[in-house]
Amino acid sequence: MPASPIRKLVPFSDAAKKRGVKVYHLNIGQPDLETPEPFWQALQALNLKTLEYCPSNGLEVYREAFARYYERLGIRLSASNFMITEGASEALAFAMLSCMDEGDEVIIPEPMYANYIGFANVGKIVVKPISTAIDTGFALPSMEEFERAISPRTKAILVCNPNNPTGYLYSQRELETLRDICLRHDLFLFADEVYREFVYDGKKHTSALQLNGMEKHVVVFDSISKRFSACGARIGALVTRNEEVLAAALKFGQARLSPNTLGQLAGLPLFALGSEYYERVVKEYQRRRDLIIEELNKIPGVVCPTPGGAFYAVAQLPVDDADAFCQWMLEKFTHEGATVMMAPASGFYASAGKGAREVRLAYVLREDDLMAAMRCLQQGLREYNRSESSGSQKNV
Ligand SMILES: Cc1ncc(COP(=O)(O)O)c(C=O)c1O
User: Fold this and answer.
1) Which of 91, 164, 326, 354 has a Cα-to-Cα distance from 59 of 20 to 30 A?
2) Residue 267 and residue 292 share a domain
3) Residues 282, 198: contact at Cβ < 8 Å?
4) How remote is the CA of residue 198 from the centroid of ligand 1, in Å?
5) How far lies 177's CA from each of 146, 147, 162, 182, 190, in Å?
6) How far is it, in rounded angstroms, from Cα 261 to Cα 59?
7) Which of 26, 113, 219, 360 to mutate to test the pocket of ligand 1 (most atoms within 8 A of CB)?
């Protein structure tokens, strides 16, 4: 089981905080925006005497509300197409274990959300990475590359759209290409769409559930964690029109008894939030994206393409080993009493040795904090490279 690149430096950030250092957390997708008021009102209005298990696939009223939310996106589904899970994380794990056997292969463009690798390992499923590169803005590789990666053991292609960690937004055309490949080789298309609403510059998101002819092939992972800044509610969903997949996933669901009842009851009114909620949040993240991308690319030696969605960016830094640099930032460096925590990107690649000079940054802080974090990073890079050339950071 690999350590999460998002959390593995936590002991160093904890130690920095104990020394009184302010740490700007750009390592983790924990939004600082408030969970919308209807969640708290619903929580306070609950009049429960016993906090019970709910059905293993989730409360029916919650699944119905989820289906109505999809209907507003133009996607027709019913409550029976949903299995409510402990975040998208559990949906991912259930889908992999339901659709694949030991030794089967899943193709995933890299860099990828690091936990895909961990969940695949649990099921002894082989991750076959397809490389995307920073110089093409992490665009989807050619169809030929996918075809070359497919073997008799390949069962699925997994895409995250918009992407974590790169922020890349797949076009409808790219998704249709993936559809053609999946249909030709009878593969599942797993689509992680937890950032669906967070797309910028007026672009539109296409859901894998909108692809024609893919009713049996598409399995979507969804979540309220990011959409509603409700990460701690631990509510997500596996969404598919494939009844066999739902039936298999339900067996895993029965083994873990029930998803979080409280999270569903409090989260129920969130689906009724209208377009003004989404517009406000998207505007906020777009402003933050604009700020961080502009500031990053001003730093000498830093390269960072503009992400089309989600709230992450992958930047290449003028260092040889971003893992060592990220640790050094927490252990050895402060600027005006603060430092920056980032996620080294090597852990987002399944191919050994890739991403050594890259980091992932989550723009989940207010603009003034992001600005301070960028100044801190610039200063840190200058000092690190100065000390590196004099050999003084060798003990990191
Ligand atoms: C791409 C992606 N998928 C899934 C998850 C898991 O989300 P949760 O389990 O909180 O729903 C995350 C969390 O950061 C994510 O970024």
Assistant:
1) 164
2) no
3) yes
4) 14
5) 10, 11, 16, 9, 14
6) 8
7) 113
Amino acid at 206: T
Total domains, the chain? 2
Q: Which long-range contacts (CB under 8 A, 24 or more apart) does 331-337 make?
A: 331/12, 331/15, 331/16, 331/396, 332/393, 332/396, 333/380, 333/383, 333/384, 334/21, 335/375, 335/376, 335/379, 335/380, 336/372, 336/376, 337/20, 337/21, 337/22
What is the domain-level CATH number for residue 240? 3.40.640.10
Nearest C-alpha neighbor of 233 from the set 269, 277, 272: 269
- Asked whether residue 122 falls in the same domain as residue 266, the answer is yes
Task: Answer yes or no: is 350 within a domain.
Answer: yes
- What pairing do the DSSP bridges indicate for beta strands 358-362 and 343-344? antiparallel
- Structural domain harbouring 104: 37-272
The values of phi and psi at residue 103, to 5°, are 90, -15
224 and 336 assigned to the same domain = no
Percent of the chain with pLDDT over 70: 98
- In this structure, the strands spanning 82-85 and 236-240 are antiparallel
* Mean predicted lDDT score pLDDT of the chain: 95
pLDDT at 395 over 70: no
Site residues for ligand 1, CB cut-off 6 Å: 29, 87-89, 113, 160, 164, 192, 194, 223, 225, 231, 236
Q: Which of 244, 272, 300 represents a domain boundary (last residue)?
A: 272
Q: Which of 222, 246, 272 is the last residue of a domain?
A: 272
Residue 231 Cα to ligand 1 midpoint, Å, equals: 9
How many other CB atoms sit within 10 Å of the CB of residue 19?
8
* Bridge partners, 160 (sequence order): 192
195 has pLDDT over 50? yes
What is the β-pairing status of strands 218-223 and 236-240? antiparallel
Neighbours of 74 (CB within 10 A): 9
Per-residue pLDDT for 5 more than 80?
Answer: no
Please tell me whether residue 282 adopts helix, strand or coil conformation: helix
pLDDT digits (tens, 9 = 90+) for 59-110: 999 999 999 999 999 999 999 999 999 999 999 999 999 999 999 999 999 9
Query: Where residue 143 falls among pLDDT bands split at 50, 70, 90?
Result: confident
| Same domain as 302, residue 240 | no
pLDDT over threshold 70, residue 396: no
